[in-house]
Write a structure and sequence with these properties.
Blueprint lengths: L3 H18 L7 H7 L4 H12 L3 H14 L19 E5 L2 H5 L2 E9 L2 E8 L2 E7 L3 H11 L4 E4 L3 H7 L12 E5 L3 H10 L8 E2 H7 L6 H9 L12 E2 L12 H11 L2
Parallel strand pairs: 1-6, 2-5, 7-8
Antiparallel strand pairs: 2-3, 3-4
Helix pairs in contact: 1-11, 9-10
């Protein structure tokens, strides 16, 4: 069962998507509330608690976004490492380690739905949004077919969950244990430099890693990101200002971006 925060975040994302899809139409608040199966009092409270603005203000900003193709509440990143990225350390999984991995995994709730978190003895190796536990574990096994698995929640998992609390102070660095090519890890490392509340584009990332013509390859590397949210691939959008795709769903991506900016 989804927790209250998860349900609310998805309702906000659905509202944003609905407003953007109907930006050229008159869209009274009552119609949005009906779409979300809420009354007008509930939708006012939801918007105020989640994005710290009333629905009319958000509707106006989203309509402006649709007309201008700029990102609401999300300035372009300024190429400065975020304070959170400084608390993330990573190691690459070596071929020998890959053949002898023991992975512990657990299922947890987040503000954006259920997540599976997995770790080796060296750090988090996988985090994905997935409501169905069987499908989540199958995807984990497909990524690490030679590993041994144990369902067990351990300290790395609890540490990963703190990233869903915007006000949490990271006193200890979190360790990631990454399986990827050198190019993929180079792209993922660049993602960690995008501060919360900022956005970048595929082309900008390609330039920053010294491969300005590799936007498509950068997009593929982002799509192979094994650690959702902590490695913030959701902060990369199209150069047109459109949100673009997301492995774990466009609605969820929209919810995360607006949550980070609230």
């Amino acid at each position: 069962m989804k927790n209250k925060d998860s349900i609310n975040s998805m309702k906000i994302a659905q509202a944003i998507e609905y407003i953007l899809e109907n930006s050229k139409k008159e869209l009274p608040l009552e119609k949005i509330a009906k779409k979300l199966e809420l009354n007008t009092e509930e939708i006012h409270l939801l918007f105020r608690n989640w994005v710290d603005m009333d629905p009319d203000t958000l509707i106006h900003q989203l309509e402006s976004l649709s007309m201008s193709n700029t990102s609401i509440g999300s300035p372009w990143e300024e190429n400065k490492p975020s304070s959170i990225s400084a608390s993330i350390h990573y190691n690459k999984i070596s071929p020998e380690e890959y053949r002898n991995l023991h992975i512990e995994y657990s299922f947890n709730e987040s503000p954006f739905g259920k997540v599976i978190i997995a770790s080796t003895e060296k750090g988090i190796c996988y985090l994905a949004f997935e409501e169905q536990e069987c499908a989540a574990f199958a995807n984990l096994k497909a990524r690490f077919p030679q590993a041994r698995f144990s369902e067990n929640e351990e300290s790395f998992h609890q540490q990963a969950l703190t990233f869903f609390n915007k006000n949490y102070i990271h006193k200890e660095p979190i360790h990631l244990h990454l399986k990827g090519t050198d190019f993929q890890i180079q792209v993922w490392e660049q993602l960690l430099k995008i501060p919360m509340g900022k956005l970048s584009t595929y082309g900008t990332l390609a330039q920053q890693i010294g491969k300005p013509k590799a936007s498509r390859a950068v997009g593929t590397a982002i799509g192979n990101n094994p650690i959702a949210f902590i490695i913030p691939c959701h902060r990369v959008i199209q150069s047109s200002g459109k949100i673009g795709g997301y492995k774990w769903g466009d609605i969820r991506k929209n919810a995360i971006i607006n949550w980070e900016n609230s």
